[in-house]
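Postdoc handover notes: sequence design on the structure in folder B. Input tokens:
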């Protein structure tokens, strides 16, 4: 039995290599019941490999994974009863309706009919999909398909939920619905581990682990991560963000630059000192800008600064 203080997911020094690449490198973290934990990182960071090992469908080279008190490496079949794993491409039957897909998965997991009906009513309502029960899955939008996948994955009330980039490519409204379902679930005490490549989505998790090249860079609440970032972040509003970047790229005191919708965010050693310096550089170079001020760091600032802006972050 799982005690209330026991972690629902424990990854300890999980490691997995493929020819030429260490996909996951000594990864340790834990997730409690009632918690949404985000595994955040760009493509190739090792998110899917981590989730596969936790789901018991890939054996780690080293380290251990415990799900609801069960050792996944030693006893994957038993662990599978307590978890639900939603891979990036969840297997929906396109020529079955929404209801029929749910019934299929309910039968697969041995969910009784009354339980299935109550559960699917609740989940479809939270998903905003109650009117679409008779629609063929193949005729749903991408966001609806993802939500239906989640409903199917949750029909048997798993204690631990592993989601692999469930909102990638999903429209903003469906993304919001999706998160609403996740928040309902944690009220039931389940533990949710979700991967995402959207750094803004990290802010919605109780805790996040930032993953880069298989290694954990940081693991904490979004608020703590931001509070512990001792560098300053400046937001420079400009119609010419690329021009701003070109001028400031090599400026003294700057450690990274991220293009945003309406300008750039730069991470600097000392905000008070650099604001007038950078304003002067931009003015001399005749780069138009509306404002240059210190702002609260975002998870994206933190991540880009940790990974180095020499990477792939070109907005
Ligand atoms: N089955 C596999 N065979 C070989 N290399 C793999 C395999 N799966 C993943 N990789 C490699 O491992 C690294 C991590 O991949 P992955 O876990 O899919 O990352 P993410 O899900 O964060 O994009 C990448 O370099 C990827 O190319
Ligand atoms: Mg992946």
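Designed sequence:
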């Amino acid at each position: 039995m799982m005690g209330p203080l026991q972690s629902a997911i424990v990854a300890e020094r999980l490691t997995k290599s493929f020819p030429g690449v260490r996909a996951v490198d000594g990864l340790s973290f834990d997730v409690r019941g009632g918690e949404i934990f985000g595994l955040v990182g760009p493509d190739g960071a090792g998110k899917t490999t981590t989730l596969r090992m936790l789901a018991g469908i890939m054996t780690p080279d080293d380290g251990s994974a415990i799900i609801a008190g069960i050792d996944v490496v030693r006893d994957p079949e038993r662990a599978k009863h307590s978890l639900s794993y939603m891979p990036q491409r969840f297997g929906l039957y396109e020529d079955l309706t929404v209801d029929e897909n749910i019934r299929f998965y309910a039968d697969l997991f041995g969910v009784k009919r009354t339980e299935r009906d109550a559960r699917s009513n609740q989940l479809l309502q939270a998903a905003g999909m109650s009117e679409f029960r008779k629609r063929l899955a193949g005729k749903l939008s991408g966001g609806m398909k993802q939500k239906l996948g989640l409903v199917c994955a949750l029909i048997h009330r798993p204690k631990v939920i592993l989601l692999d980039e469930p909102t990638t490519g999903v429209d903003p409204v469906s993304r919001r619905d999706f998160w609403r379902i996740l928040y309902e679930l944690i009220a039931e005490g389940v533990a949710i581990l979700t991967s995402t490549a959207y750094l803004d989505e990290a802010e919605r998790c109780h805790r996040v682990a930032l993953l880069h090249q298989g290694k954990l860079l940081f693991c904490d609440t979004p608020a703590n991560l931001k509070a512990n970032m001792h560098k300053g972040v400046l937001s420079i509003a400009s119609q010419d963000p690329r021009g701003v970047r070109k001028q400031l790229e090599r400026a003294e005191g700057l450690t990274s630059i991220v293009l945003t919708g309406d300008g750039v965010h730069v991470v600097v050693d000392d905000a008070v000192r650099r604001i007038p310096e950078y304003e002067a550089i931009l003015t001399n170079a005749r780069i138009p800008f509306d404002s240059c001020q210190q702002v609260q760091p975002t998870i994206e600032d933190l991540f880009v600064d940790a990974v180095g802006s020499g990477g792939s972050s070109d907005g």
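Context for whoever picks this up: The longest strand covers residues 21-31. Don't rerun without checking with the PI first.
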